[in-house]
Amino acid sequence: MARFDNSTLPVIPLTRGSVLFPGIVHRIPLPPNGSYISHLLSNSHARGALNSPGGNPLDAIQLACVPIASPYLGPNGQLLLRDSDQQDNTYLDVDPSNLTTDDLFGYGVTVRVLGIQGTTSGSAELRVEGVSRCKFKALANERQSFEATDYELCPDQVSLTDKKIRDLFASLKAHAQELVSVLRVSSFLSRSDPKSLLSPLLAQRLTMFIMKKDLKDAGLLADFMANILDISYEEKLQVLAAVSVKARMTKVIELLQREISGMKGNFSVTTVTTVPAQILDRLSNRQGKGMGLPTSATPLLNMSPPGGFPPGSQDKGNNKDPSDIELLQKKLEAANLPPDAAKLVERELKHMKNMMPGGNEYSITMTWLETLAEIPWATVTEERLGPETLARARKQFDDDHCGLEKVKKRLIEYLAVLRLKQSINDDLEEQINAAEEEEARLNAEKEEAAKEEDPEAKEVPRVNSAKLEVLRARRAVDKSPILLLAGPPGVGKTSLAKSVATALGRKFHRISLGGVRDEPEIRGHRRTYVSAMPGVIVQGLRKVGVSNPVILLDEIDKLGKASNMGDPSAAMLEVLDPEQNHTFTDHYVGTPIDLSKVVFIATANELDSIPAPLLDRMETIYLPGYTTLEKRAIATKHLVPKQMRANGLSQGQVILNEAVVSKIIDSYTRESGVRNLEREIGSVCRAKAVEYAEAKDGGQLETYRPEVTEQDVEEILGVETFEEEIAEKTSRPGIVTGLVAYSSGGNGSILFIEVADMPGSGNVQLTGRLGDVLKESVEVALSWVKAHAYELGLTPQSTTNIMEGRSIHVHCPSGSIPKDGPSSGMAQAIALISLFSGNPVPPSMAMTGEISLRGRVTAVGGIKEKLIGALRAGVKTVLLPAQNRKDIRDLPTDVTEGLNILHIWDAIRLVWPDSQWAVDEKKLAGLESRL
Ligand SMILES: Nc1ncnc2c1ncn2[C@@H]1O[C@H](COP(=O)(O)OP(=O)(O)OP(=O)(O)O)[C@@H](O)[C@H]1O
């Protein structure tokens, strides 16, 4: 057991090359079981408690820590060997149990015990904090315990009036701050190494810590910096041995200078602090007002350390990179902002000059101003709306698209109106300018007159102002409508809009509204939000760089519905309203933008899902699907040459004849548009390109065959993907052929409706993935047939229930394909009548039409697609509602010639002309319609 008396001081050797300084917290690992440190602690505690009973037991423990001596230093820290390269640091790998007093350094620190802490590895650590330097004159070693038998405590002595000390302290602080800045910059530059990262928060704390130290803490600050500096063990021992604060500061400043210049070798530092100017302000104010900080620290704020900016000058904005703001200012000037925006920008720029660069607000404002500078406020594409515009547009449309005559005609009309309105607007603009000049002149005259008090002159400007207002109002109203191209996928909506842009010579930008769910996506987030951005419209304008592009609002029908994130379609209303869009406000930009020069063209696959107010603002041009004939023409004239070019083939290297194109259309695609057709033609071209290249490389070009046969198509594209629904050859009661538009892939096709009856109690079973509307139309048909069973001759008496004792099952085959819509109502009713009467419907006959509960057959949509599908499926006769007569006029001739189209008034008679069971005119006379 160690023996202690009050004149001795227990000493713990620090191993692993560590040096403890006053003010620094250190952890000393406690060896397991029976450690001498434990004995030492308990004895020291017992002795301390004896001396000062009742105090904090930890405070009672008196200890010192001593580092291992270096063979390269003398007992007072003087360097014995100058060339550190020759140093061998193996002396530091000591076994604590074999230490002798000779192994210990002559200086150490007394410590305060903070506690004992367990570690995750199961061992314990003693936490101590250095208190004061201590010089050991004599050390004793007894049973592995060390004690200083003769020692001298050396607390820091700082003379607050010593100018040399004050200057040294100011220099130490400045260097310490500079080191933090340099560390921050270097960690920023070497982001790839996470170990070298100094977070902004930590850098700020360090700077604050340094700033808060005052002259009486000079020695502590020097110790703190020596502790964090990357210096050798000997240098640390030297700092420990520097009892004089002056000497210590000199040594630490020297070490700091070396460290800083070493780090600065690779880059130049322009910013030296991370403490916000306001805090520095506050600090200097506090000092000025004598709020606890000694005035001796004041010179610090005015000092000018080598290589850095004086910290006190930071609030004057000197440390900002002026080129950033200047550059931005120039960009903003060049952007030609409207007066409102210019005022806003000026204010923000002024504000920005007082901000800390790198701060959050600074970068937010910077990004915002950059966005504003990039918006094309006044940049426009030069107009090409001249007398030749329409001819050029016509040629462009014909070059890019086959068929679509009606649509092209409508687009030409649109461009003609755009041109006329523009010339009217140009005239108006001229008149407005003239009127404005006139008003300015009259105002000047009025002022003159007012000076001379002439009452007559005052009336004239009022007349002129009214004229100006009228002119301005006319200009605002004379805007062209927004076009909506609606139709199934791949029918050329996007490419038509592109052709419009080409014909007008304007830039084109496409905005996909498909995934837009929130209003801010259209109108932007307020710039105070984290990672706020402008909306899609402003982003589009920034991208194209002009204020008069053609913007395609693609898939406007897929725009999200109103939610807690706002209603995107409401924001769209403002964009599309010619009355409002000259002052469109994006939340991020925060100032109105004129969208009136933009030509907006929207596209949609269906109109039902577009909110009515939005639909109302647009003029719809419907693009129906293509017939096989049209597809063939498009493929031959456009898609084949296009795909050949795309695959590096020149004319004549691939020949696809009509039969081959038809095979691709019928067997490999089922769509209203031509997108898949283009893809399949692309596959064929690619396969031929490989064949051609191989033949050429092998020197056997003569063996290459450019013609593609139907067999080749099968080999290249694989097994036929689609087999058309073919009309039945025979029929049974209860089976009717209906028509659908936009079935799989948006094509028209036929649909079989099968009804069977069985003994039961009047139940109706529906299968075949029927949608709610379709189910309802079955119910309507059944109710009508039940209600008129007697008139139709299906029951012998008017009181008989036709469903009595039976149940029915309605099924539509292709059960995996969902079906919906009311247009099969008539076919359901005919199928039921057919079932109950036992009369089959001719198999080559198909029908479509919605029925009401009164038995009226009403118009349905998608006639063109349905009839094309019917023709393809081998249907000969089609029954259509009388109201759909108008749709037949636009049908391609191959459809009108290939089908016997009958508009029904008396459907039953058309289906069963020879039947005897429904000819009682008297009975039918009561019906409102002749289903
Ligand atoms: N009448 C046509 N003549 C020539 N090519 C056409 C015609 N119609 C469509 N195409 C071509 O079909 C492809 C698909 O057209 P586009 O992308 O314009 O379809 P879309 O109607 O916009 O489809 P979606 O609704 O899916 O966006 C384009 O390559 C286009 O050039």
From TrEMBL:
Q: Residue limits of the Lon N-terminal domain?
A: 9-260
Q: What is its main location?
A: other
Q: Which organism is it from?
A: Cephalotrichum gorgonifer
Give the UniProt entry's GO cellular component terms.
peroxisomal matrix
Which EC numbers characterise this protein's activity in its record?
3.4.21.-
User: What name does this protein carry?
Assistant: Lon protease homolog 2, peroxisomal
Q: Name one Pfam family in it.
A: LON_substr_bdg
> Known PROSITE patterns for this protein?
LON_N, LON_PROTEOLYTIC
Q: Which InterPro entries match?
A: AAA+_ATPase, ATPase_AAA_core, Lon_bac/euk-typ, Lon_lid, Lon_proteolytic, Lon_Prtase, Lon_prtase_N, Lonp2_euk
- Provide this UniProt record's keywords sorted from A to Z: ATP-binding, Hydrolase, Nucleotide-binding, Peroxisome, Protease, Serine protease
Q: What does the UniProt record say this protein does? A: ATP-dependent serine protease that mediates the selective degradation of misfolded and unassembled polypeptides in the peroxisomal matrix. Necessary for type 2 peroxisome targeting signal (PTS2)-containing protein processing and facilitates peroxisome matrix protein import.
Which residues are named in the active-site annotation?
A: 823, 866
Ranges for the region named Disordered are 296-323, 439-459
Q: Where in the cell is it found?
A: Peroxisome matrix
- GO molecular function: any one? serine-type endopeptidase activity
**Binding residues annotated for ATP, in chain numbering:** 487-494
Q: Where is the composition biased (Basic and acidic residues)?
A: 440-449
Task: Fetch the Gene3D superfamilies from UniProt.
Answer: 1.10.8.60, 1.20.5.5270, 1.20.58.1480, 3.30.230.10, P-loop containing nucleotide triphosphate hydrolases
